[in-house]
Amino acid sequence: MEAQLNQKIAVVESPKKRRMKEMASRFFQNKMAVAGGIFTFLLIIIAIFAPVVAPYNPSEQDYAKFLQSPNAENLLGTDELGRDIFTRIIYGARVSIEAGIISVGIALLIGIPIGLFSGYYRGVLDEYVVMRFTDALLSFPPLVLALSLAAVLGAGLQNAMIAIGIIFTPNFIRLVRGEVLSQREREYVTAAKASGISDFKIIFRHILPNCMPPILVQATLSIAAAIISEASLSYLGLGTQPPTPSWGAMLSMGQGYLGDAPWISLFPGLFIFLTVLSINLFGDGLRDALDPKMK
């Protein structure tokens, strides 16, 4: 009896396991996505263990090492205050990753519930309030809107993350709403309603899990965009404030020394490029792996 029960469970679980294996296979066939994922993972590990990895204190000043070029002691050189560029880039990774994850988290926290209820119930509130407000926010260039919000909220990393989260919220509202509009007409939703299951359970227990693949892909790609937005705000003085290291702020401080010490701006810009590229490659690979049309 027990053997038969285990066999039935295996039969039930096998389609799910098969789909997981197929998705993993599609993802690992994309070498660029794997490379992007490895670089992103390593960067996160380095950022978490920054005090162990970094050779110096990021705020430690040494005027005897003023504007030194890359050497054995300072791998990426020093800035105008004698601070180690390599150390500040490592700690700057913390700021960039934190800003990306928290900003997108804010957008998800606001956008998913609004998109779910708006798409499921529709009606006047959806058509004339939610969607028109979303269209109004999307009509502004993202960076201009982020600058305006950051200027109103005040300079600082926390306010920058809130501003970035707000500008990404309409994207998730529209994405989730569109997915719910397609899912609400499916047979499993009709069956759940006929069984007397409450709308709340239908939305969060049945519809939301089926909307997660595109949400995960969009969230991954949005983290890369959030990192660029945070660097832009910090570059303009509205994001991370000194002496906290930030890639965008390092670019800003190094622009006055491009002729004499280009490494001050070169390496932070290079890490912004590599990080955003890696996350985008990983997100593209994740999208292809989760897309059923790729079967």
TrEMBL record:
Major location (coarse): membrane
Subcellular location: Cell membrane
InterPro entries: BP-dependent_transpt_permease, MetI-like, MetI-like_sf, OppC_N
Pfam families, alphabetized: BPD_transp_1, OppC_N
Transmembrane segments: 33-54, 101-121, 133-153, 159-176, 215-238, 263-283
Membrane topology: Multi-pass membrane protein
Record keywords, A-Z: Cell membrane, Membrane, Transmembrane, Transmembrane helix, Transport
Entry-linked Gene3D superfamilies: MetI-like
ABC transmembrane type-1 domain mapped to chain residues: 93-283
PROSITE patterns cross-referenced by the UniProt entry: ABC_TM1 (PS50928)
PANTHER family: D,D-DIPEPTIDE TRANSPORT SYSTEM PERMEASE PROTEIN DDPC-RELATED (PTHR43386:SF1), OLIGOPEPTIDE TRANSPORT SYSTEM PERMEASE PROTEIN APPC (PTHR43386)
Family: Belongs to the binding-protein-dependent transport system permease family.
Protein name: Peptide/nickel transport system permease protein
Organism: Mesobacillus stamsii
